[in-house]
Design the sequence.
């Protein structure tokens, strides 16, 4: 059996093809399904998403072509083998560099920035859908240590040291979730949750002297 290629902790998505591949709610949802299983077939993905396998085949091909998914082997299903896929990294980060030219001053975010906006729009659209479903779920908790639904939007002016502290906390959260995803054995008592965060600078809100 061929040795599985090394999987980096984080892959930075920087090409136009990669940007287009993840600027889709369906493909973001599909990637999220690999939390519980390292390798999954198109049929398994389709069953969990409640969509026809033909539609999932298309999304898997897009992600494979972009280097976000890869074929990892096969499993027996009926009379013929079924391809298994896995992610090429534990987590993915979107390149969001600001263009260093006159276009930036004119308010043009550039290709990477436009892709980031599309991807975050898809992610937050999914978050709204998950919130709507959570509000009708009797297992939803909004208080206490078992809280599994929470939302907040805060505007704040941060000194450099405060911003650095905030980023340390955000990195700690990322590291904690990455560790849990790699080591935790799923249990029927688990809370299956989604966390969507965005830290953004506010334009034209500078402190007035």
Sequence:
């Amino acid at each position: 059996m061929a040795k599985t290629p090394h999987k980096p902790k984080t892959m930075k998505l920087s090409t136009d093809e990669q940007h287009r591949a993840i600027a889709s709610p369906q493909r973001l949802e599909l990637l999220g399904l690999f939390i519980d299983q390292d390798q999954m077939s198109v049929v398994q993905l389709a069953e969990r998403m409640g969509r026809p396998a033909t539609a999932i085949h298309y999304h898997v091909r897009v992600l494979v072509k972009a280097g976000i998914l890869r074929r990892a082997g096969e499993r027996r299903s009926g009379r013929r083998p079924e391809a298994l896929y896995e992610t090429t990294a534990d987590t993915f980060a979107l390149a969001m560099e600001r263009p260093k030219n006159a276009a930036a001053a004119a308010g043009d975010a550039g290709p990477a920035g436009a892709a980031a906006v599309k991807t975050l729009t898809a992610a937050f659209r999914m978050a709204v859908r998950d919130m709507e479903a959570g509000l009708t779920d009797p297992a939803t908790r909004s208080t206490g240590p078992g809280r599994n639904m929470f939302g907040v939007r805060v505007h704040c002016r941060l000194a450099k040291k405060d911003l650095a502290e905030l980023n340390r906390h955000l990195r700690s959260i990322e590291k904690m979730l990455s560790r849990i995803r790699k080591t935790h054995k799923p249990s029927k008592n688990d809370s299956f949750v989604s966390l969507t965060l965005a830290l953004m600078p506010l334009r034209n809100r500078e402190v007035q002297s």
The longest strand covers residues 69-77. The two ends are 67 Å apart (CA to CA).
